[in-house]
Amino acid sequence: MQSLKSELSAKLSNLQADERQIEAQLRELANTLDRRRKSAGDKLNAQLNYSSASATQRFSMRGMTLSSLKASGPQMMSFSLGGSNQALTVNIERGMSDEEIIQRFDRALAPANVRVSSDANGKLVFTAPEVHWPALRDNLSILGRGRVAPEEEPGAVAPQRWGTSDTEALRRSLQEVVRALAQVRSSQAAASRELSAAASRAATAPVPAVDMNALAQDFAATATEPNYDSLLAITSAMVGISRERVLALLGLH
Q1: How much is the mean pLDDT over the chain?
Q2: Contact 56, 127 (CB under 8 A)
Q3: Average pLDDT of 225-242?
Q4: Helices (H), ranges, the chain
Q5: In the prediction, which pLDDT does 200 show?
Q6: Residue 64: is it exposed, middle or buried by C-beta count within 10 angstroms (0-12/13-18/19+)?
Q7: CB atoms near residue 199 (< 10 Å)
Q8: Which UniProt keywords apply (predicted)?
Q9: C-alpha closest to that of 184 among 41, 25, 24, 44
């Protein structure tokens, strides 16, 4: 993505830039994004946000807004999600506040791992684990209305919509690349922090006695080998190990 940014900047500055190279990089970026969930271990969502939990997909349903729900008066909606035989029912009563309606939806759909909130315009926003999204997208229905076509929130990066035909298109594409790069770097930093925290926990975790015995046996076997490699292994392993640490490990201190 960094090289794509450089190519777009060069073309905008009327410097030498290979348009075919730019188009090839756009295709490569699109292919990389298609492999995103598998490559990122289900930790990077379509908005390029990293999370230690599973990636999620946000979606909406046409006409499902707080204002329309309140205007419709008392009603009961039964949802079938992801091909499940169990219908999940939401009861909307007259006079309910926006927050109460959101809570009703959220509690009703929680058993299907779907959470509900709203955006600034009062549209209901549904969030589900991304791994469940294909089943939800293809099987979501409401009793009495039939199958519903949910509208997924578009990804943060959509290179197939970027253009290079003129200066304005190049400028918009460059802005999208810069924004995506910033998000990628933020996610990389989040992943690095999690890895560092995991490494710290692993370093302070107690070592099982059976593992310590195996380690001691391997160490003793290495010590009996009269060669440089074994000496290097032993001295390297002993660097930074004080008498107090050894006594603590042996339970004598």
Answers
A1: 75
A2: yes
A3: 49
A4: 2-12, 19-34, 36-39, 66-71, 98-109, 133-139, 167-204, 209-223, 228-238, 243-250
A5: 76
A6: buried
A7: 10
A8: Coiled coil
A9: 44
Residue indicated by tokens 């009603």: 75
CA dihedral 216, 218, 220, 224 (to 10 degrees): -170
pLDDT of 119 over the 60 cut? yes
The dihedrals phi and psi of 207, each to the nearest 5 degrees, come to -90, 125
- Phi first, then psi, for residue 197 (nearest 5°) are -65, -40
Residue labelled with tokens 């329309």: 68
Topology (CATH) of 56-152:
Alpha-Beta Plaits (3.30.70)
Tokens of 63: 């006409």
Distance CA 54, CA 42 (A): 6
Of the chain, the end-to-end C-alpha distance in Å amounts to: 55
Stronger pLDDT, 151 or 39, i.e. the higher one: 151
Bridge partners for 180 per DSSP: none
What is the spatial distance between Cα 68 and Cα 171, in angstroms, rounded to a whole number? Answer: 39
Q: Which helix (H) or strand (E) holds 126?
A: strand 124-129
In the chain, the amino acid numbered 48 is L
Cα four-point dihedral sign 119, 122, 123, 127: positive
What pTM did the predictor assign?
Answer: 0.57
Structure tokens belonging to residue 225? 């080998």
Q: Where are the domains of the chain?
A: 2-48+156-197, 56-152, 209-250
